[in-house]
């Protein structure tokens, strides 16, 4: 791997640079040393596609095994992207031995510096407990950047194309799950059928559901996961409107929440933070879930696992089918929604005009599967 470092980085590493080499830019990286939150960070930017790899919290002991850390970070990040393991191994094996040189030219340095700016945008994703920054690398490399006059790229998408050209095969292959998601409404049918990568966290599933159902993410939410077995004690002491209430008395396994404060509440079931749990941690063992959005209106989405895909060729969700429009935000739950629809259907109702104007202010879209999929791809790829 050819690393072209700034003087600041080369001095810190105490490396005498080799002369410049003409190598495939896919295996060549410009690198800089930065200080973020009082910690040293090495930022590598690929010369071909501008993909970013960050090593954070670098100390003298890390410098001694820098080659190993860089390769491991590249490997783990590419795998987390959903790139086929065989392609990742091929890339690593084909890479030349590590060499360190000075930066190539002003253009390359300017592009590297532009990419380095993203570290300030995504610094809240930096993990203080690990040198490799897999999550940060993925998010920062999705940021649209300039790549010459009137040219803009997403580094991650460029990386996929480069690896496909390099290997002659599709770069992305992940395991995925087909989900049937139904919004609980009294007299309406609102359903979305989604394919979601199993390496997604439940927080990412939440974001996908918000897009699929055209919610605005104004409110808190949580997941409840159930087992197949039933228990008479499941709903003891709980009303029908209690978020974890299950009509089939299925055993409640875990509650996944969106904020850390909730973890401190006493509960009779395990409570975990959704952002730290991947779908693969509970699926396919458990196939029944409830997703609750807005604890005031209590919009309950019943999620059923339909099947699994071993060779899904995308690293973002896709809506396969759907019907029905989602209620407006803050309409008052299922009862309030029925009242809202009845008023809209009655031009003589004294609140008709008010509700009409209020409804327009919600900016709700008619369900359009093409738009949903466009938004899903834009959000996650």
Automatic annotation (TrEMBL):
Pfam families: DUF6933, PRiA4_ORF3
Plasmid pRiA4b Orf3-like domain boundaries: 176-371
Domain DUF6933 span(s) in chain numbering: 2-158
Organism: Oceanobacillus longus
Residue ranges that the Swiss-Prot or TrEMBL entry lists as coiled coil: none
InterPro entries associated with the record: DUF6933, MM3350-like_sf, Plasmid_pRiA4b_Orf3-like
Protein name in UniProt: Plasmid pRiA4b ORF-3 family protein
SUPFAM superfamilies membership: MM3350-like
């Amino acid at each position: 791997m050819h690393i072209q470092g700034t003087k600041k980085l080369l001095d810190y590493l105490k490396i005498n640079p080799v002369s410049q080499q003409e190598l495939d830019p896919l295996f060549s990286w410009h690198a800089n040393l930065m200080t973020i939150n009082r910690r040293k960070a090495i930022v590598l930017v690929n010369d071909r596609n501008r993909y970013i790899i960050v090593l954070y919290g670098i100390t003298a002991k890390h410098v001694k095994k820098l080659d190993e850390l860089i390769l491991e970070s590249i490997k783990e990040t590419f795998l987390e992207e959903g790139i086929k393991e065989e392609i990742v191994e091929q890339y690593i094996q084909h890479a030349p031995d590590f060499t360190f040189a000075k930066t190539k030219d002003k253009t390359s340095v300017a592009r590297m510096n532009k990419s380095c700016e993203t570290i300030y945008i995504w610094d809240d994703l930096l993990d203080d407990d690990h040198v490799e920054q897999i999550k940060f690398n993925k998010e920062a490399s999705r940021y649209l950047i300039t790549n010459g006059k009137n040219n803009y790229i997403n580094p991650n998408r460029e990386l996929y194309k480069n690896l496909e050209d390099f290997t002659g095969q599709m770069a992305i292959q992940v395991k995925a799950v087909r989900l049937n998601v139904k919004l609980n409404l009294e007299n309406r049918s609102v359903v979305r059928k989604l394919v979601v990568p199993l390496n997604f966290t439940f927080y990412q599933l939440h974001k996908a559901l918000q897009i699929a159902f055209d919610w605005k993410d104004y409110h808190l939410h949580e997941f409840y996961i159930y087992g197949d077995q039933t228990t008479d004690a499941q709903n003891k002491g709980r009303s029908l409107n209690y978020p974890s209430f299950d009509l089939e008395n299925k055993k409640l396994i875990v509650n996944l929440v969106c904020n850390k404060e909730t973890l401190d509440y006493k509960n009779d079931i395990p409570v975990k933070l959704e952002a730290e749990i991947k779908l693969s941690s509970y699926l396919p063992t458990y196939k029944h879930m409830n997703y609750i959005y807005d604890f005031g209106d209590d919009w309950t989405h019943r999620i059923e696992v339909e099947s699994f895909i071993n060779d899904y060729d995308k690293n973002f969700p896709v809506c396969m089918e759907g019907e029905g429009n989602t209620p407006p935000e803050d309409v008052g739950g299922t009862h309030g929604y029925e009242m809202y629809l009845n008023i809209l259907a009655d031009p003589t109702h004294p609140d008709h005009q008010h509700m009409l104007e209020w409804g327009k202010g919600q900016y709700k879209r008619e369900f359009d599967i093409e738009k949903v999929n466009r938004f899903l791809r834009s959000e996650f790829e």
